[in-house]
Amino acid sequence: MLISQVLKAKGTQVISVRPGDGIASITRTLAQHRIGAVLVVEGDGTVLGIVSERDIVRALAGMGEAVMRMTAGQLMTRVLFTVTPASLVQDALQLMTDRRVRHLPVLKEDGTLAGLVSIGDLVKARIAEAEQEAEELKAYVATAG
User: pTM of whole model > 0.90?
Assistant: First the structure.
């Protein structure tokens, strides 16, 4: 299964913030949309980084309430691991496992943002794929006998 198929089912809307947005605003956005991460995007659509719940918790543990005065640009993870719509779900899951990340921006060949997939999205897609394969095998065995 391809990432493009996951995006087709999930949708391509990506919740994002600007580099100057404060952490309090970001936490409200995460809670409001019931998501675990937001991309940090420039006005022209350039993806600069990502801020996840994990980033915020780690910063709070290390810096305390001073984190609440920080901006997305200061806190974001700048090194992004990405996939393309043509990437295989299995490869994306392997990348997430190897790099210990839970979200992958999906970039088109021209570098523009096509979507964002989470580990939950990919596991759901893999389960659906396995269930479909099982049904196909059952149908094959039923008609072959």
Answer: no
